[in-house]
Write a structure and sequence with these properties.
- By secondary structure, this protein is an alpha+beta fold.
- It has a single domain, classed as Kinesin (3-Layer(aba) Sandwich).
- Helix content is 30%, strand content 19%.
- The protein contains four helices and six strands.
- The strands form three sheets. It has a two-stranded antiparallel sheet with strand order 1-2. It has a two-stranded antiparallel ribbon with strand order 3-4.
- The radius of gyration is 18 Å and the shape is globular.
């Protein structure tokens, strides 16, 4: 999960995202536990939820201060077919930090976080709008780590 990573001094996450030769996006240092059932998967989801950065603001006492992404990779085989055909699927569950009205924030640290969150949400909006516009030649997925991570879900093979 993105929220498990240490934060840098600019208010952003200290994560590093890279594309491999196949065009798949990977987050350095992230764990990818293999689970065999729904209960194990939910335990990991709830564990990540407890590690999320939450702080009070004047607008919201329990404001999420970071975006969280929980990615589930699923492999399935047909029980009926004799050929061992495997289908690979990827599902992103995304919890976005809320847009903050910076005029109502009091602390400078919260202001910096809010600016970073708002900028990230603006980049996400720009990418979604560009991906939906068939006249656009370019979708700016690399504008932010979040949009780069979610590019296969936003405009790829999802």
């Amino acid at each position: 999960m993105l929220s498990d990573q240490p934060r840098d001094t600019a208010g952003g996450s200290g994560i590093s995202i890279q594309d491999d030769a196949k065009g798949e996006v990977h987050v350095k240092g992230l764990s990818s536990p293999q689970v065999m059932n729904e209960e194990e998967a939910l335990n990991h989801l709830f564990e990540g939820e407890t590690k999320k950065t939450i702080a009070g603001t004047t607008m919201n006492e329990h404001s999420s201060r970071a975006h969280s992404v929980y990615t589930v990779h699923i492999q399935s085989k047909s029980r009926m077919e004799s050929a061992e055909k495997v289908i690979h699927s990827k599902l992103h569950l995304v919890d976005l930090a809320g847009n903050e009205r910076t005029k109502k924030l009091e602390a400078a640290a919260r202001m910096k976080e809010a600016n970073y969150i708002n900028k990230s949400l603006t980049f996400l909006e720009q990418v979604v709008v560009a991906a939906c516009d068939s006249k656009k030649d370019h979708v700016p997925y690399r504008q932010s780590k979040l949009t780069n991570l979610l590019k296969s879900s936003i405009g790829g093979n999802c």
